[in-house]
Design a protein that fits this description.
This protein is α/β, with parallel strands linked by helices and about 130 residues long. The chain has one domain: 3-Layer(aba) Sandwich (Rossmann fold). About 45% of the residues lie in helices and about 20% in strands. Strands 2-1-3-4-5 form a 5-stranded parallel sheet, with helices on both faces.
Length: about 130
């Protein structure tokens, strides 16, 4: 693991999405943690203080937007990417208001995730577009 190794939390209620992101993120050289819902995500963020969180919007127990709000209050510097298959303008606006770095449409392309992580690792956040 290089000096740019990050702790990244993947939050999604679909095991396939967690599995895919787990593989892609490890391939690029980062540590991966996973959670199945927003409630678990808030607990994991408190415990591991990740650099980055990929979070689905629609999940049982606690949705992504509510978890985003709690995470940003707890650790304002933790960057959160909201993932959604239902990317309505309203959802995207809510996510941005609550401090999300950006919104990413699902299903996503593996190469897009790799490019995003490359940009994020080099802290070119201003140039990141999702």
């Amino acid at each position: 693991m290089g000096s740019n190794c990050m702790d990244i939390l993947v939050v999604d209620d679909h095991p396939g999405v967690r599995y895919l992101l787990d593989i892609v993120i490890k391939e690029v050289g980062h540590r991966v943690h996973t959670a199945q819902n927003g409630l678990e995500a808030v607990e994991k963020v408190r415990a591991i203080k990740p650099n980055l969180v990929f979070m689905d919007v629609r999940m049982p127990l606690m949705g992504g937007l509510e978890a985003l709000s709690k995470i940003k209050k707890m650790l304002p510097d933790t960057q959160v990417v909201i993932m959604t298959a239902y990317g309505s303008d309203d959802t995207i606006l809510q996510a941005q208001k609550q401090g999300a770095l950006c919104c990413m449409a699902k299903p996503f392309d593996v190469d897009d995730i790799k490019d995003f992580l490359e940009d994020f690792t080099h802290r070119e956040i201003k140039n990141i577009s999702c």
